[in-house]
């Protein structure tokens, strides 16, 4: 088979494989991409296209389709592993989703770039080369999904987007799993990823999970509108509270109504930090957890939304779902 024992690069878009230009950015042809690789990797690499979409159009179901296609290259074709290219603005979330559901031993590696192929600062050749090295070396085997950017390999849970205009576009709270030591590009392992829980999805991914973010002086108009107009369509809600997870006091009775209606509500910190229940006042994280909101722990609101969708689609409920959400710590 054409893909047996090779690294399959699944082209799902992103500037990394698109020419710089005004308006529509055409993607590079397979021959152009192959020419960017070192000679020793070309014969071990296969390129496959997926429907190029702006990352802003991705749904979780589309993310699931990418996972299914990647799995088929391994299960049906015997590929060594799969690399997915996509827009940097959604890379961390897509890879985090993949890490929750990828149950195959061969690796799934995500890569992208802030810069278009062929631009002055283009990283296309380097990023593709490193991602293919990560697959072919065997280092990523058995580690679920990973992200290959900025001369290193990271666990998806450890990657946060912080900029859309400079080289350091991503931040990493924890050390990388491995680095590519320059100038030779040698792959040096540093640590093992944290233990993860992989779920098999028993139903279509929940699509109506919203994030409601609190801000200073916030009112309750959006929450009331959600309850009054679209309540029955809601699959779940992630509340992104202020630093510790606190929200305006006026939100409390409305959130209590959601919980009593058996709508799963998760509490995260909009700062992407630990939900803190050290204080007790109207709207405090302590009170919200007491009335039944689930603790997202260290998950960002965006990670919590994805994790909640996966948990619900795997059939988790009640205490079991709560434990799963806390397992993101």
Description:
The chain has 329 residues and is of the alpha/beta class. The chain folds into two domains: 7-189, Rossmann fold; 209-326, Rossmann fold. It has helices at residues 30-35, 39-42, 60-75, 88-101, 124-136, 221-229, 252-260, 285-290, 301-313, 318-326, and strands at residues 7-11, 45-49, 81-85, 108-111, 145-149, 152-154, 160-161, 170-171, 178-181, 186-189, 209-213, 236-241, 265-269, 294-295. The strands form three sheets. It has an eight-stranded mixed beta sheet, with helices on both faces. A four-stranded parallel beta sheet has the order 11-12-13-14, with helices on both faces. The protein is elongated, with a radius of gyration of 21 Å. The chain starts with 6 loop residues before the first strand and ends with a helix. The model has no long low-confidence stretch (mean pLDDT 88).
SSE arrangement:
Blueprint: E1 7-11, H1 30-35, H2 39-42, E2 45-49, H3 60-75, E3 81-85, H4 88-101, E4 108-111, H5 124-136, E5 145-149, E6 152-154, E7 160-161, E8 170-171, E9 178-181, E10 186-189, E11 209-213, H6 221-229, E12 236-241, H7 252-260, E13 265-269, H8 285-290, E14 294-295, H9 301-313, H10 318-326
Parallel strand pairs: 1-2, 1-3, 3-4, 4-5, 11-12, 12-13, 13-14
Antiparallel strand pairs: 5-6, 6-9, 7-8, 9-10
Helix pairs in contact: 3-4, 4-9
Provide key terms for this protein.
alpha/beta, elongated, Rossmann fold, 8-stranded mixed β-sheet, 4-stranded parallel β-sheet, 329 residues
Summarize this structure briefly.
Helices cover 30% and strands 17% of the residues. The protein has helices at residues 30-35, 39-42, 60-75, 88-101, 124-136, 221-229, 252-260, 285-290, 301-313, 318-326; strands spanning 7-11, 45-49, 81-85, 108-111, 145-149, 152-154, 160-161, 170-171, 178-181, 186-189, 209-213, 236-241, 265-269, 294-295. Helix 3 crosses helix 4 (88-101) and helix 4 packs parallel to helix 9 (301-313).
